[in-house]
Every structure is written in structure tokens, then in C-alpha cells.
């Protein structure tokens, strides 16, 4: 759609057919901000309402989505001892977590709000509807759309790209100046050019198992005191040694749920068994078992044998992989959408400024370097989280690195000060990036209780100059609401005045008293 707005002719080639169910469904405040910026910069008024729950419901109620007020984390103890061993009997290797998901013990919870109320809330994108809508909008702008097409050849020359294939049994040939591959990890360009894969240092081999369900209950909130938001209206994460389960509820009665876990865990509960493995895992977490007691999968379980991926090459002179095709780490923390939209924004600028320029090759090299650096920063963080899924206090502290970085970045951009946060997760910020990498490396090592405490304290010191959300405040005991006073107290960190903060909050619809 952006390419059309820039005056380019565009053909979009699709192997399958819309609508179709895929995962990668949960937005974030930074995702929504990027969607707003792209919509405003390139005149896409039909897309902009999808950046907030309220405008989405008023403008496109026919497009299914879910309400996401924040990030909900619950910790569960599935294993006795430090690790699981498939050769042991289940009776000796495991014990059941008999604690409800909404346990009063807030030491086993982390709730981070992303909005103060529903109107400006984030969303879960029901991709069957969302993607289909975008395809239709692209066609309205003059994009030629060819679905059910199998491409078989790829030729690159000084003139551009040429691809051949079959559509509905008939030969198809397409020539273009440039090709953008948005076909996902290990997608079309990687396969047909035989691009090598690179390692993600420090990230464990992981698998995934997921489906969509009807009949999933809401867990509610039995914790004492008012929580920052209804705990189900969130990306709900159930964390345990070796993996985690996501639960995302849509407003059409469908729930997306699945598990991402290390190979070791996936061999203990063989993911190849699909539904049987899922039920076996739920049985170890009675709160989840009760939530899914009446649930029915509406599609077969899908197993992803290797979840993480990093392409050894991301761009050339005539083609580029979107970040979603250049690599993927894990659904944890919902980083996929912002990484991809950052890539869309970077490619859009290249098309806008360098399309017929000799600068395009160097610009694409810069795009590739930024995309890979973002991926590595994400992998370092989530790899450290995986290493501490059995050490929840450290897991919580590491999570605050993420929430501090993205909340600071979003606020700086909304204040018109993007230079304060020019890289994802502040990876290039000299007072944050190097120190963060050092802490994440330490978090990958076995930690004693004392070492865990020291690491958590050091994380709070590192995030302090960028902490605009009151993160780590001991009086909040792992529950973090969206509190405008936090921003007023942090005005100096953002090089802003209190009047600028007030104007920002009014623009964003905080409904200040």
C-alpha cells in the first residue's frame, strides 16, 4: 500500500488464499504507534483506526480482534528439582502445580498495563480477518493480487527480478525492479536461493504447539485489591521451567493458545502428539486445565519443529527480506509486530528517497544491518528470560528491561523526540545497550539466590534513567498500572517539560482529571 502511495506499480503474490488462520496476533503500544505513523505518513486512513481498540470497534467492528490492556504473567512449578528427565517416571519427576492462576501470591505474578482504559487499548489481531482486510485495501489502491500461486524460479539481474511459477495450473511470469519477501521464516527467497542460516547466540533450540479454541473460560481475578486491568484482557503468559503458554482471547469467542518450549521440554511432553501433549501439559497446571475444561480446538494442532530462525543474508541490490522473513525469535513479549513495522518504515524511506538512486545499495545494506541487530538484541533478551523461567524474580527483573526500553521509546517518539530512542530496545543507547548486554550475559549463567538479588538490583539501576513507568517500585509489588504521574515525574528523562507531558497525555486520550 505504501509503495502504491509512492507511485510504484505493485504485484502481490500469495502462495495460499485469504482468509486463513495464522498466529502472531498480539499488538503492543509501540506496534500501534508505528501503525499510526505509517498511516499518517503515507495516507492510509483505512488502516489507522486499527491502532486502538476504541477506533477499531467504531470503524471496523466486522474485523475480529481481542482487547489487550496489558501483559499478564503467572509462574507455575511443574517440576521437582532443577530439571526434567524423560527417563524418570512421571510420579518421581513432576509434581502438579495446585495453585490457581490468579494466585493471591503476587510474587508469582507480573502485571504490566499498557493503557489506562479500553478506548486507547492495544489489541490482538485475529489474523484471518486482519490480513484479509489489508489485502482488500491494497487491491483498492491498485495492487495486483495473485493468490494460489506457486513460484518455482527466481532470477536476479541488473534490470531487476524475474520470477516464474504456476497459478491455477497456468504458467505465470512476473518481472519487477525490486522484490520484498514477506513470506516468513525460511520463506521463498531463502529456499530458492539456498541462503544459509546463522546462529542466534545464547538462544536455546525451541519448538511450538498451538491451536485456536472455542469454549475457553476467563480466569478472572481473585487477587486482593484492584488489579491494573482485567487480567484476561491481556496477553496472558503462563511461565514454567522450560517454556510458557500463551492465551489470547478474541471478541468472537475464539481463543488462541499454544506453548513455546525448549527441545528438552518438548521431548518430555512429545509435541509430535499434538492434542495429547497439550492435555498432558494442562493437567500439570490445574488452573489452566479448569480454564480449558470445556474448550474445543477448531483446527488441528500445529507443531513448529524449530521456532527461532536467523537468515544469513537479509538484502541484496534488488531484493530485501522483511524482518518477519529475515528472522524470528519467540512470541514471548510480542516483539514480532514492532520489528516488522520498523522494517516496513525503513524500506518505505528507501523507496521514497533512494528508488532510482545509486544510494539504494548502501541504504539496503544499512537496512539489513539494522534488521539483524534488532533480531540479535531480541534474542539476547528472550534467551535470558528462557534461562530464568525457573527463577521468577530474575525473570521479572529481566522483563523490566524490555518494558523500560519500549515505554521510553514510545513516549519519546510521541513527544516528537525520536532521537532519544533511535534503536529497538535502546540497543544503541550508550548508557543502556552495552550495560544491558552485560546483564543479559550474566543472566544466562546459573545464579544463586544472592546472585539473583544482586542482578535484579543492578537491572533497576540500569533502567532508572529510562524508567518512565514506575517499574521496579516495591510498593507496587509486581503490579504496574499506567499512571500519568509517572510520566510527570520522568519529564527530565525525556528532555520534556511538564506542559509537554500534559499535552501528550491529552493527545493520547488519557482522560486526566
Q: And the CATH topology of the largest domain?
A: FAD/NAD(P)-binding domain
Would you state the CATH class of the largest domain? Answer: Alpha Beta
Tally of extended strands? 20
- Radius of gyration from CA coordinates: 23 Å
| Structure annotation, total helices | 17
Q: Quick one: CATH superfamily of the largest domain?
A: FAD/NAD(P)-binding domain
Mean of residue pLDDT? 93
Largest β-sheet summary: 9 strands, mixed
The proportion of residues in beta strands is: 15-25%
Helical residues, percent: 25-40%
How far apart are the termini?
40 Å
* Spans of at least 5 consecutive residues with low confidence: 80-103
Task: Provide structural commentary.
The protein is α+β, with helices and mostly antiparallel strands and 513 residues long. The protein has three domains: 2-20 and 128-197 and 314-375, FAD/NAD(P)-binding domain, CATH 3.50.50.60; 70-113 and 204-304, D-Amino Acid Oxidase, subunit A, domain 2 (D-Amino Acid Oxidase, Chain A, domain 2), CATH 3.30.9.10; 391-507, no CATH class. It has helices spanning 2-5, 29-41, 53-59, 90-93, 127-140, 188-193, 263-268, 275-283, 286-291, 323-326, 336-354, 360-387, 392-414, 433-443, 449-463, 484-489, 498-507; strands spanning 11-13, 65-68, 70-75, 109-113, 122-125, 144-146, 149-157, 160-167, 170-176, 179-181, 206-214, 235-240, 243-249, 254-262, 296-297, 302-304, 309-310, 319-321, 327-328, 479-480. Strands 3, 4, 11, 12, 13, 14, 15, 16 and 20 form a nine-stranded mixed beta sheet that branches. Strands 7-8-9 form a three-stranded antiparallel beta sheet. Helix 2 (29-41) packs parallel to helix 11 and helix 13 packs parallel to helix 15. The radius of gyration is 23 Å and the shape is globular. The chain starts with a helix and ends in a 6-residue tail after the last helix. The relative contact order is 0.13. Mean pLDDT is 93; it is low at 80-103.
Amino acid at each position: 500500500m505504501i509503495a502504491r502511495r509512492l507511485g510504484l506499480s505493485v504485484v502481490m503474490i500469495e502462495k495460499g488464499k485469504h482468509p486463513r488462520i495464522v498466529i502472531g496476533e498480539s499488538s503492543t503500544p509501540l506496534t500501534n504507534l508505528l501503525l499510526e505513523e505509517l498511516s499518517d505518513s503515507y495516507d492510509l486512513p483505512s488502516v489507522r483506526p486499527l491502532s486502538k481498540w476504541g477506533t477499531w470497534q467504531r470503524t471496523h467492528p466486522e474485523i475480529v480482534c481481542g482487547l489487550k490492556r496489558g501483559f499478564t504473567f503467572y509462574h507455575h512449578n511443574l517440576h521437582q528439582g532443577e530439571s526434567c528427565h524423560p527417563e524418570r517416571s512421571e510420579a518421581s519427576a513432576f509434581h502438579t502445580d495446585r495453585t490457581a492462576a490468579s494466585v493471591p501470591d503476587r510474587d508469582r505474578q507480573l502485571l504490566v498495563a499498557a493503557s489506562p482504559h479500553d478506548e486507547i487499548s492495544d489489541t490482538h489481531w485475529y489474523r484471518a480477518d486482519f490480513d484479509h482486510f489489508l489485502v482488500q485495501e491494497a487491491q483498492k489502491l491498485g495492487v495486483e493480487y495473485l493468490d494460489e500461486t506457486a513460484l518455482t524460479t527466481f532470477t536476479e539481474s541488473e534490470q531487476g527480478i524475474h520470477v516464474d511459477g504456476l497459478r491455477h495450473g497456468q504458467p505465470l511470469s512476473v518481472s519487477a525492479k525490486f522484490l520484498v519477501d514477506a513470506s516468513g521464516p525460511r520463506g521463498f527467497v531463502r529456499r530458492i536461493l539456498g541462503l544459509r542460516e546463522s546462529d542466534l547466540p545464547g538462544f536455546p533450540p525451541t519448538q511450538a504447539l498451538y491451536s485456536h479454541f472455542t469454549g475457553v473460560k476467563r480466569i478472572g481475578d481473585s487477587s486482593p485489591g484492584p488489579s491494573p486491568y482485567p487480567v484476561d484482557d491481556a496477553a496472558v503468559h503462563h511461565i514454567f521451567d522450560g517454556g510458557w503458554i500463551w492465551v489470547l482471547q478474541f471478541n468472537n469467542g475464539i481463543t488462541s493458545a499454544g506453548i513455546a518450549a525448549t527441545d528438552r521440554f518438548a521431548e518430555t511432553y512429545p509435541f509430535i502428539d499434538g492434542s495429547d501433549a497439550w492435555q498432558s501439559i494442562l493437567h500439570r497446571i490445574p488452573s489452566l486445565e479448569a480454564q480449558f475444561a470445556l474448550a474445543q480446538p477448531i483446527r488441528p494442532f500445529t507443531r513448529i519443529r524449530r521456532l527461532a530462525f536467523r537468515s544469513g543474508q537479509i538484502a541484496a541490490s534488488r531484493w530485501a527480506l522483511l524482518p518477519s522473513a529475515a528472522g524470528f525469535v519467540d512470541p514471548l513479549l510480542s516483539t514480532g509486530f514492532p520489528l516488522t513495522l520498523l522494517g516496513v518504515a525503513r524500506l518505505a524511506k528507501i523507496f521514497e528517497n533512494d528508488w532510482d538512486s545509486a544510494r539504494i545499495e548502501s541504504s539496503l545494506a544499512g537496512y539489513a544491518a539494522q534488521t539483524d541487530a534488532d533480531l540479535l538484541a531480541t534474542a539476547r533478551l528472550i534467551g535470558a528470560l528462557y534461562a530464568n523461567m525457573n527463577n521468577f524474580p530474575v525473570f521479572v527483573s529481566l522483563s523490566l528491561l524490555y518494558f523500560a526500553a519500549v515505554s521510553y521509546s514510545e513516549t519519546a517518539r510521541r513527544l516528537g523526540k525520536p532521537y532519544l530512542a533511535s534503536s529497538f530496545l535502546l540497543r544503541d543507547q550508550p548508557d543502556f545497550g552495552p550495560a544491558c548486554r552485560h546483564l543479559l550475559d550474566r543472566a544466562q549463567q546459573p545464579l544463586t539466590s544472592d546472585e539473583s538479588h544482586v542482578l535484579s538490583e543492578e537491572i533497576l539501576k540500569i533502567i532508572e534513567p529510562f524508567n518512565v513507568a514506575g517499574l521496579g517500585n516495591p510498593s507496587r509489588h509486581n503490579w504496574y498500572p499506567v499512571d500519568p504521574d509517572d510520566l510527570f515525574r520522568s519529564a527530565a528523562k525525556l528532555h520534556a517539560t511538564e506542559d509537554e507531558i500534559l499535552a501528550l497525555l491529552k493527545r493520547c486520550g488519557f482522560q486526566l482529571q
